[in-house]
Specification:
Layout: E1 2-5, H1 11-23, E2 27-32, E3 37-42, E4 59-63, E5 83-84, E6 91-92, E7 98-102, H2 109-122, E8 126-128, H3 146-159, E9 162-166, H4 170-179, E10 182-185, H5 193-200, E11 206-209, H6 216-228, E12 234-238, H7 256-263, E13 268-270, H8 272-276, H9 279-292, E14 296-300, H10 318-331, H11 355-358
Parallel strand pairs: 7-8, 7-14, 8-9, 9-10, 10-11, 11-12, 12-13
Antiparallel strand pairs: 1-3, 1-4, 2-3, 5-6
Helix pairs in contact: 2-3, 2-10, 3-4, 5-6, 9-10
Bound molecules: phosphoenolpyruvate (PEP) and manganese (II) ion (MN).
The site of manganese (II) ion (MN) has 5 residues, from loops.
Length: about 375
């Protein structure tokens, strides 16, 4: 059920409707839009008993939502969600493309800084890197853990890029929330519902990667889990699905980008690195991702891919990332997008640990 407020409904009226919904035993999610605010109702076991909701001041109408996903849907919010990072010009879902780049895993201070310097210079606004790695083999490198997160925080201080890193379980989520700017939920965890709910209680944005065999609906429902807990700063990431194709690691399903954008207001970016598994296919698929309308890219880059502890085969050399950015800058205007510099307004160091509480990324 969706309560659509009148265009000029006051904040008090919206608040009163939310209180009424909560008093009926449901959860209210107010989503302000450019034209009007809609309030999603969740937490109902069956049909919502609307009581006298439609007679409350400021209420325009009540709409039954038949789709399984509600908060991710354009029914509740017509305009695209734009995730902002106060202290920088970086956004995700706006006109400017969000470019995330960095190594698959954080391996050492020296490695992270060598890569970070190059991707920042090339124009990435976000630095990626895994401190906790979900590896197919228990004998493969599992990540540096908190030490890796500390290195990433130093990268943020030094280069002004916001940092994105994966939480693989509840334990790592506590630490990732403490250090990072965006929590990554990996493909293998897209249907780990308790982890998605935990991410929904985090105060920072969450990127949900598509599971290797997830349908569009399952993908959107994973984001719905996060939003249902009250975290509306969610972005999606297509990272390739498993098909019978054997010339690439996965098949990048670019058609999911317009499919998501039709149904949902959430931003969606593409990961051609996990998507193809092959360095020589990353740049072509990046070009195609931007052309198809993705809101950004997440790219693996390593200064010495041959020595990488994970995913060296799909990691670009820094020079190749430079070239990729040059090409993206040419394609972006054709699809009405821009590529902005890192754009930090003031020294990040001054933001300190108040980042989460006082500078939450905001949603338009
Ligand atoms: C990664 O980003 O390195 C990664 C492990 O991604 P995915 O969850 O898409 O496999
Ligand atoms: Mn990887």
């Amino acid at each position: 059920m969706l309560v659509v407020m009148k265009a000029h409904a006051s904040e008090d009226q919206v608040r009163a409707v939310c209180q009424k919904i909560e008093s009926l035993g449901y959860r209210a999610h107010a989503m302000p839009g450019a034209e009007r605010t809609a309030i999603g109702i969740t937490g109902n076991k069956g049909v919502v008993e609307p009581g006298t909701l439609d007679e409350m001041p400021g209420v325009q109408e009540l709409i039954a939502v038949s789709k399984p996903y509600k908060l991710v849907s354009r029914d509740i919010k017509l305009e695209n969600t734009v995730i902002r990072f106060p202290g920088t010009d970086a956004t995700i879902g706006g006109k400017a493309l969000a470019i995330m780049a960095g190594p698959c895993s954080i391996e050492s201070h020296e490695q992270a800084f060598a890569v970070a310097e190059r991707v920042a210079q090339a124009g990435a606004q976000f630095f990626r890197g895994g401190a906790y790695k979900p590896r197919t083999s228990p004998y493969s490198f599992q990540g540096l853990g908190e030490e890796g997160l500390r290195i990433m925080a130093e990268v943020r201080d030094q280069f002004g890029m916001r940092i994105i890193t994966e939480a693989i379980d509840h334990e790592s989520m506590d630490l990732v929330e403490k250090y990072a700017d965006i929590i990554q939920i990996g493909a293998r965890n897209m249907q780990n519902y308790s982890l998605l709910k935990r991410a929904g209680r985090a105060k920072i944005p969450v990127m949900v990667k598509r599971g290797m065999s997830a349908t569009l609906e399952e993908f959107l429902m994973a984001a719905e889990y996060v939003m249902s807990e009250g975290n509306y700063q969610v972005l999606l990431c297509e990272r390739g699905i498993r098909t019978f194709t054997d010339h690439t690691r996965n098949t990048v399903d670019l058609s999911v980008v317009p499919a998501v954008q039709r149904l949902s207001h959430l931003p969606i970016i593409v990961d051609p690195s996990q998507g193809t598994g092959k360095r020589n296919k990353v740049t072509p698929l990046s070009r195609a991702s931007i052309a198809v309308g993705a809101d950004g890219l997440i790219i693996e880059v390593h200064h010495q891919p041959d020595k990488a502890l994970s995913d060296g085969m799909q990691s670009l050399f820094p020079d190749q990332f430079d070239e990729l950015m040059t090409q993206i800058r040419q394609i972006a205007p054709v699809v009405g997008r821009t590529v902005e510099p890192t754009g930090t307004h003031f020294p990040i160091a001054t933001m300190g640990s108040a980042r989460n509480e006082n500078h939450p990324a905001s949603m338009r």
